[in-house]
Amino acid sequence: MGKIKLYKSLNEEEKKSVYEFMKLETDYINSFEQINKLYDVKIYDYGNGALFYFIDDKVVANLCLVLEVAEVLKTAYIHKIVINKEVENINKILEELIQKAIIIAKDYKVNKIKLGLDEKTFSHLKRYGFDYEYRSIEMKLEEPIKKYETLNLKELSVSNKERYVEVYNESFSDMSHGTFIEIEDVNKLLTKDKDKNKEIYSFIVCDNNTEIGFMEITIENNKGKFDIGLMKEYRGKGYGNRLLESAIQFLVDKKVDEISLIVIEENRVAHEMYKKRGFKESFVISYWSNIID
């Protein structure tokens, strides 16, 4: 019927077909040069996790398989599924793509594979029997008035970057949809040649002199977002609300117009904490299912 090809094996003509397909079906491709920047990257193991379905030398569907964390976290994520809505046998094409992705993921010795669909793709595929188990949600804060005592922040620097990696990975790598960082990632955070319209702050969070977790803040167009995490030994000890409050008050001090975060519904403890603090669901980012668990 068709043929699945990995981005790393495509020739120039096939890459042009990828470009034409993505330009037609998405709103985030503006030039041919963007193709390499999207798919020949670490997150997809430099093209090994970018799958394209060809019929008669034309791309009709694709999906991306996040492999960057696969060997460490034993988890792979299928996301960014894009399909030509006019093509026949959509179910069959997606089944073949997903099965190929599973085969690739198993080569990385994963124990879990998760499938995520954005709102547009999920709405389209519901008619073919696709469903979800949990969602990734953006939540916005309605009331920034201070409710809890804050913690101390130790900003990421050249002198503490190795410790930052340890704290971050201890705090976040075991979370639902967790990830990990390496020293090369932190070195990029420390470079100053960043987007002038985006501010990024990274901190080790402390209770007096005790390092308990991390915080990452992004401010863009005067809107603030953050990620937070506690190391395992400090969970369940009342630090969660104070860590959350520390992120909120940092952004309040920056006088942003909006404070938001992203939460995975599977992380029920965090989801409930955010709701109690006054965060309200603003929109669904993606719908997720466990394919292999």
Tell me what the structure shows:
- There is one protein chain.
- The model has no long low-confidence stretch (mean pLDDT 93).
- With 293 residues, the protein is an alpha+beta fold.
- It has helices at 12-25, 34-39, 70-73, 90-107, 119-125, 161-172, 183-190, 239-253, 268-277, and strands at 3-6, 50-55, 58-66, 75-83, 112-117, 134-141, 152-155, 198-207, 210-220, 223-230, 258-264, 279-292.
Which ranges are low-confidence, i.e. pLDDT below 50, for 5 or more consecutive residues? none
Report the mean per-residue pLDDT as an integer: 93
Percent helix among the residues?
Answer: 25-40%
Strand order of the largest sheet: 1-2-3-4-5-12-6-11-10-9-8-7
Instruction: Give the terminus-to-terminus CA distance.
Output: 30 Å
Query: How many strand units?
Result: 12
Rg of Cα set: 21 Å
- Derived structural class: alpha+beta
**Multimeric organization:** single chain
Overall geometric form: globular
Sheet with the most strands? 12 strands, mixed
How much strand content do the residues show?
Answer: 25-35%
What order do the SSEs take from the amino end to the carboxyl end, as H and E?
EHHEEHEHEHEEHHEEEHEHE
Number of helices: 9
